[in-house]
TrEMBL record:
<keyword id="KW-0520">NAD</keyword>
<protein>
    <recommendedName>
        <fullName>protein acetyllysine N-acetyltransferase</fullName>
        <ecNumber>2.3.1.286</ecNumber>
    </recommendedName>
</protein>
<dbReference type="Pfam" id="PF02146">
    <property type="entry name" value="SIR2"/>
</dbReference>
<dbReference type="GO" id="GO:0070403">
    <property type="term" value="F:NAD+ binding"/>
</dbReference>
<dbReference type="InterPro" id="IPR003000">
    <property type="entry name" value="Sirtuin"/>
</dbReference>
<keyword id="KW-0862">Zinc</keyword>
<dbReference type="GO" id="GO:0046872">
    <property type="term" value="F:metal ion binding"/>
</dbReference>
<dbReference type="InterPro" id="IPR029035">
    <property type="entry name" value="DHS-like_NAD/FAD-binding_dom"/>
</dbReference>
<feature type="active site" description="Proton acceptor">
    <location>
        <position position="125"/>
    </location>
</feature>
<keyword id="KW-0479">Metal-binding</keyword>
<dbReference type="GO" id="GO:0017136">
    <property type="term" value="F:histone deacetylase activity, NAD-dependent"/>
</dbReference>
<feature type="binding site">
    <location>
        <position position="158"/>
    </location>
    <ligand>
        <name>Zn(2+)</name>
    </ligand>
</feature>
<keyword id="KW-0808">Transferase</keyword>
<dbReference type="InterPro" id="IPR026590">
    <property type="entry name" value="Ssirtuin_cat_dom"/>
</dbReference>
<feature type="domain" description="Deacetylase sirtuin-type">
    <location>
        <begin position="2"/>
        <end position="250"/>
    </location>
</feature>
<feature type="binding site">
    <location>
        <position position="136"/>
    </location>
    <ligand>
        <name>Zn(2+)</name>
    </ligand>
</feature>
<dbReference type="InterPro" id="IPR026591">
    <property type="entry name" value="Sirtuin_cat_small_dom_sf"/>
</dbReference>
Length: 250
């Protein structure tokens, strides 16, 4: 390891030990170590099963059928994914009180599986481990939906009101959840350290959160394998594997 890299890791350790209102902002790069592919990986799952945009889902029964076909194909390919050492490190820092809030762009439920729950976790893009009715909001479990879909090929309808049932994720063209964004913005402004972990910071408005934190006085740390547009304003930039970087803190 080069001396500069060692100094960066030592500085990261100092920040992690000293923070009291830390925010972990996590993206797809945190879950690649669990076998879940990054959205932009060439030839990956998301290339072959690109999500259906929200307007198409609402307007076309065929699009709804295709959305569910792609959803279950992706689930089959990622079945068995478990939290990796990076997830466990984040959970440990939450448990110890250094991280006050985890804001995630991920929909895989691995933060919950690692032990981060309730008011400590904000899911900006929803959660792909269950579904909801777009009309009444009723929760539907995927294991209950799938047999009927595979038997008939018809998209599921809400058992309560008959409305469209959709994976509880935010699709392209679907409004961001206002309450989740408000909570995330509040957490960013209150943070003493803002940790970007595995996000390329290209999806807005979520990618504006590190800027808000920095402007409010937080130390901004960006740990991502590839450069981001916000690297120039960060106090610390680490371009490395997140599992290797965070495993000592798990």
């Amino acid at each position: 390891m080069e001396r500069d890299d060692q100094r960066k890791i030592e500085r990261l350790g100092t920040l992690l030990r000293s923070m009291r209102r830390g925010v972990a902002f996590t993206g797809a790069g945190l879950s690649t170590g669990s076998g879940i592919p990054d959205f932009r990986s060439p030839g990956g799952l998301w290339t072959r099963h690109r999500p259906i945009d929200f307007d198409s889902f609402l307007s076309s029964a065929e699009s709804r059928r295709e959305a569910w076909r792609r959803k279950f194909a992706i689930d089959d390919a990622t079945n068995g994914a478990a939290p990796n050492a990076a997830h466990r490190a984040v959970a440990r820092l939450v448990e110890q009180g250094g991280i006050a809030t985890v804001v995630t762009q991920n929909i895989d439920g691995l933060h919950q599986a690692s032990g981060v729950t309730g008011e400590k976790l904000i899911e900006l893009h929803g959660n792909g481990t269950y579904a909801t009715c777009l009309d009444c909001g009723a929760r539907h479990e995927l294991a209950e939906i799938r047999p009927g879909f595979e038997a008939t090929g018809e998209p599921p309808a809400c058992r309560i009101c008959g409305g469209f049932v959709k994976s509880a994720t935010i699709s392209f063209g679907q409004p961001m959840p206002a309450e989740a964004m408000r909570r995330a913005q509040d957490a960013a402004r209150e943070a003493d350290v803002f940790l970007v972990l595995g996000s390329s910071l290209v999806v807005y408005p979520a990618a504006a959160l590190p800027v808000s934190a920095k402007q409010a006085g937080a130390a901004l740390v960006i740990a991502n394998r590839e450069p981001t547009d916000l690297d120039p304003i960060a106090d610390l930039v680490l371009r490395t594997d997140l599992v290797a970087l965070l495993a000592p803190f798990a």
